[in-house]
């Protein structure tokens, strides 16, 4: 018993001192490749974690620093960088909103994966809504192009009630999310279609809305002290529900065609500019958009909305020369099965940089001290970090571009895995490192 108390106390002291340890490591440290490697080794010991880092000059084609650059890490939302590049290569300047064919008095339409239909977090021009609303034919929704599971491989099933784990579907509507606003015992929901699916229950002290795992029943717990709250919950998708939601919104009858339908003569209705989607995906790390974009990419090279089609195509074509073969399982990075190396991610950013002009690219990314998931970090005058974060429990990554004080453009990938310290401490370590590189390169 005495040994256990001593061990717990040591652990508590160690975690208490971690911020000071990190600050000490970087207080006076130089930024030469050898010094960086030494500091990364010390950090791995101090934080009991794994660190990967690559720094690269794309103009000189020179690797400036490499620590575990060919070691595989869980990338979390750095996976979206792969989805971003795939979309840039396959989608063009506008996302396909619908595929359709007119046969007699019938308009048959297929989803393309477009995430923007009535999704409140992106710009929408109402193209698909106006088209379907005004069509003189009877409307038939064909769902035979979507053989994909609603969750990706390696997703955590118990995230089903969290907004960031919306289900994948061929024709999403409202982002496959229901938004509940509570005030005491009263509950309002958008879309109103779900207002009869709310069941009150007073079993929890804290206010909550919890969906039944397998169906769209939403249990409302007002809590011990009811208050005005907003809850955003994924709903359970199906082709029938899609038709019902569309019909409720368009005020029209939508009939579902479950059997395969001939696609001879199919046309494509173009939707919103793809940059509108890329910006939200890359800055706010929107998982739903990422997953749907990968489906849309698959639809550009096949008749089937299956992410593996797009992944395999890219690995055989534009990504065939990556220094380390990516283990790539989904569009968003929710999967714990994804594995990438810092070296491959840096190489990917270089490909992106040669695909998209800098003046278009940088405004689409998270910007240190200004936009997206790093708006509260990497501050200090003119922004110098442009990139993409990635966070899962015990994992945090940041990869992208660093514009040094000298004006020199660098590409980096910084990956931390399997730590038990707080992510705030990991982020502090990363900020100290990147700031010194900014000042000295």
UniProtKB/TrEMBL annotation:
<protein>
    <submittedName>
        <fullName>D-alanyl-D-alanine carboxypeptidase</fullName>
        <ecNumber>3.4.16.4</ecNumber>
    </submittedName>
</protein>
<keyword id="KW-0121">Carboxypeptidase</keyword>
<dbReference type="InterPro" id="IPR000667">
    <property type="entry name" value="Peptidase_S13"/>
</dbReference>
<dbReference type="GO" id="GO:0006508">
    <property type="term" value="P:proteolysis"/>
</dbReference>
<keyword id="KW-0645">Protease</keyword>
<keyword id="KW-0378">Hydrolase</keyword>
<comment type="similarity">
    <text>Belongs to the peptidase S13 family.</text>
</comment>
<dbReference type="GO" id="GO:0000270">
    <property type="term" value="P:peptidoglycan metabolic process"/>
</dbReference>
<dbReference type="GO" id="GO:0009002">
    <property type="term" value="F:serine-type D-Ala-D-Ala carboxypeptidase activity"/>
</dbReference>
<dbReference type="Pfam" id="PF02113">
    <property type="entry name" value="Peptidase_S13"/>
</dbReference>
<dbReference type="InterPro" id="IPR012338">
    <property type="entry name" value="Beta-lactam/transpept-like"/>
</dbReference>
